[in-house]
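Request:
You are asked to prepare a plain-text protein record giving the amino acid sequence and the backbone structure tokens, at your earliest convenience.
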Amino acid sequence: MGEPRQSRVRIRTFIELIRRERVFVIVLALGFLAAGLSYPYAQVAMWVGFAFAGYSAVANDSIQTLGTFIASNRERAWWQLWLFIGGIFLVTVAWSWANYGGDVSYGRLASKGFDKAPENFAFLQIAAPLFLMILTRMRMPVSTTFLLLTSFATSGSSIQKVVMKSLSGYVIAFVIAIAVWGLAGPWMKRKFVGKAHPAWRVGQWLSTGFLWSVWLQQDAANIAVFLPRSLSVVQFLAFAGAIFIGLGVLFRMGGERIQEVVDEKSDVVDVRMATIIDFVYALILLYFKMHSKIPMSTTWVFVGLLGGRELALAVRQANSDGRGVKAAALLMGRDLLFVTIGFVVALLLASGINPVVRAGFFGF
């Protein structure tokens, strides 16, 4: 009797999952249909691909820039968070558009291998953001740079440079996190008790705004890669307006499912911890922005930062939830596994689309 009962439970669980996700599945199916119908027509396809990329990239990468902000401001009205973050977005991309000849990527798309706007599109180039939506729904922090940008590379060496810069970003962020939270973790545990001073809330909003702006200067290229390298006034307004509205949807939802990757980490809902995480991460991204114009995976940097922090807090026994070294290492390993899976998926998709990727990585 036990086996039939377990089978019925599994069936009911599966049916409930389908019911819960039916809207997402319908949207996804319509997305693939739109990609299939639009990709032969470049002027239509570039905007369809951009629309998919705009939401999927921000939704997946929101854990890096907005995750701690959302987690520590649950009591705030969603529209207040939206207007603040959306306003910074508009100012940041408008500055780039005005000062880089219509380019909204701060020159990232001017680097060799990405400087030519696509004249024709493949189906998988338009559909790639939809795969990113699926991985986001599965709570996988995936590199949007690898999944979206590499599909348009015109040089094998440019892809290798992106990979090397991203790996170095992971290592540097991991080491910095070990140093910062290894040294200051016990002090933070002693001092960050009770209700935070109101000044910390101001500091968090400022650090989040700083981080969000720096992140956009790195990762706007992943969204704008579908579009002309120099946008007209009308094209810029369409670009900025679509992302602004998408941010409103994201905040109304309280973050995508991937938000749980941040929520499960130690003390991120504490505004003081969230402020420090955002500020350290922003400084690391600022360094890489100033170092070169080569695009990079900010996801790898963020996962390295959170992984090093979790491990350092566990070693120093400075986390409030009492998580041990083994548990912290498993959490770190899981996040690294997920971004690696995302990288493999991105590489397979990009190689199926782009002969430059096949030649650069597989030699054929």
Summary: The chain has one domain: 22-35+44-123+159-355.
